[in-house]
Amino acid sequence: MPRRSVLSATALAAVLLTAGCGGGEGPNGAEEPVPTAEESASVSGLDASSPSPEAGDRAAGSPQDASRKSGEGRWTDASAAPALKDVRVSGHDAYDRVSFEFADGVPDYFAEYVDTLRHGGLGEEVRIAGEHRLKIVFVGITPRSTFEDREGTPVIREIRDLGVFEGEMGVGIGVDSEGGSRAGFRVKADGNRIVVDIAHSPASPPD
After folding, report:
1. Cβ burial, residue 41 (10 Å; 0-12/13-18/19+)
2. Coil, strand or helix: which one is 39?
């Protein structure tokens, strides 16, 4: 074989060997390094040593709004107002939940953060664990609706019955978010329940 042919074959083999090793040219024509196994794991989210998210990095499904919420109820019996039957607390990855279960439908409701909680009938201040106080009011509810005050989670510190007065029942929820500011929350009716989801981290600042 002529010498020129041998040199051409050798050069071609070198080019093919470089391409087979996974290298390539970047946008500026420079050869880019092949990522290591450790770098690939980090990019795909599999690196167990990655730092935990900051408070501002909201987890999927976490409520972000701390403003007042309200909603309409649903009565299943025209002659009977809804009655509170049970209160449950559950923890989730991005938020914790308080579930209020009713009989004969669900009442109208509104929820907002307040500086002071007060008993509906007596007007006396009600102390509660937690830096922030979220008040839920159920409108159009039977006087027999009541529950035992209870502790919750590290975020939902305590839940207290504020009494029923003129068909309105107040519930106080003491909240401590991981960032210190008021946590985002959402309220929704779900069948015979009204659920309140409270985020672990502070609400997003308003636009």
Report:
1. middle
2. helix
CA distance 74 to 126: 30
Q: Return the number of other C-beta atoms located less than 10 Å from residue 106's C-beta.
A: 26
Distance between start and end Cα atoms, the chain: 76
User: CB atoms < 10 A from the CB of 130, how many?
Assistant: 18
Select from 154, 199, 157 the least CA-distant residue to 55.
199
* Amino acid occupying residue 98: V
Query: Is 137 within 8 Å of 187 (Cβ atoms)?
Result: no
pLDDT per residue as tens digits for the range 25-55: 443 444 444 444 333 332 222 233 333 333 3
pLDDT tens for each residue of 55-97: 334 455 889 999 999 999 988 877 789 999 999 999 999 999 9
Cβ–Cβ under 8 Å, residues 145 and 100: no
Query: 156 phi and psi, to 5 degrees?
Result: -90, 90
Handedness of CA 101, 163, 146, 130 (dihedral sign): positive
Written as one letter, the residue type at 166 is E
Maximum pairwise Cα distance, the chain = 107
Cα(67)–Cα(13) distance, integer angstroms: 67
pTM: 0.70
